[in-house]
Design brief:
The structure is a single chain. By secondary structure, the protein is α/β, with parallel strands linked by helices. The protein contains 14 helices and five strands. Strands 2-1-3-4-5 form a five-stranded parallel beta sheet, with helices on both faces. Strand 1, helix 9 and strand 2 form a beta-alpha-beta unit. Helix 3 packs across helix 4 and helix 10 runs parallel beside helix 11.
């Protein structure tokens, strides 16, 4: 009979499981981030990849083609567009991430577990799509900007508010109009010393893209925080922070991506603090003083 786990022999397995979960999330993040580069049939292939997980190891390219309702050649093309050399390369990546035993899946009836896991996967996949160098480059742009416009619409509005607050607390001169028309007007008045931080999950929200386009036309540097490698927003941006992505199984992409975007804003604030040094520290002191007056 196998001995019951003790604290000493449980911890290594716990951390091993966490590492495996993180690796699976990285592959899923890589797939989700490239969805906008795929055609309709290729998106169905990506959906099969995300839904099957490690079960993909038992499927041939023809099996995947059947499940996706397309041809084997389309499966191979989709894999290449997702960043792999082909279907076998994708399977190798899946094999490296697959833990022994049964797949870790929540019960279809357990909606809280579903929602939580989607969010955890989005956060765990962040390091696959955004790097420290990306954050430092964006922070350097913001640190040198005389004015920063933060813009976004819909569910990204909450991220815009958070970003604007943090940038102000770090001493940046920030404008974050709630009205999309005002945002476009502000974008048109920016100068070459300004920066525009445009936040959009899809990268295709018309008002956000239009504001970013006007900002760039005015000479400002545009930073995009989005979930897709290729989109109207990334095409006109000088710098891209890629985080989040669409979960095709549960349909909770907006929630998971918003959480991922908020974490990126946290990391960006830390990078900005380092970039601005004493100026940011002084601004934080004043921010803490203001906050203290509003607390009991």
């Amino acid at each position: 009979m196998q001995s019951p786990p003790t604290r000493s022999n449980f911890i290594p397995y716990y951390h091993h499981g966490m590492a495996l979960r993180s690796e699976r999330a990285r592959l899923a993040a890589q797939v989700r981030a490239r969805l906008s580069q795929l055609g309709t049939a290729e998106i169905r292939v990506a959906q099969v990849v995300l839904e099957q997980g490690e079960a993909l190891l038992e499927l041939s390219v023809t099996d995947v083609a059947t499940l996706a309702g397309t041809s084997p050649s389309t499966v191979v093309r989709a894999c290449k567009n997702l960043g792999f050399d082909g279907y076998q390369a994708l399977k190798i990546a899946v094999a490296r991430e697959s833990p022994p035993g049964q797949p870790d899946k929540a019960s279809p009836d357990d909606v809280l577990s579903h929602a939580t896991q989607v969010a955890v996967d989005a956060l765990s996949g962040l390091t696959a799509t955004v790097t420290v160098e990306d954050l430092r480059a964006a922070a350097a742009i913001l640190a040198g900007a005389g004015q920063v416009l933060v813009t976004g619409a819909g569910l990204s509005g909450a991220v815009v508010l958070d970003a604007a607050y943090r940038l102000r607390a770090l001493g940046c001169t920030v404008d974050a109009p709630a009205d999309p028309l005002t945002a476009q007007l502000t974008a048109g008045t920016l100068t070459t010393t300004a920066a525009c931080l445009a936040i959009s999950h899809t990268g295709a929200t018309r008002t956000t893209v239009d504001a970013a386009r006007r900002a760039r036309a005015a000479g400002a540097t545009v930073i995009a925080l989005t979930s897709y490698v290729r989109s109207p927003l990334t095409e006109i941006s000088d710098h891209v922070l890629l985080a989040g992505g669409q979960d095709l199984t549960f349909g909770l992409e907006a929630v998971a991506s918003r959480l991922a975007h908020l974490v990126v804003i946290d990391a960006l604030a830390l990078a900005l603090l380092a970039a601005k040094g004493d100026r940011a520290a002084d601004a934080l002191s004043m921010s803490a003083e203001v906050t203290a007056h509003h607390s009991y």
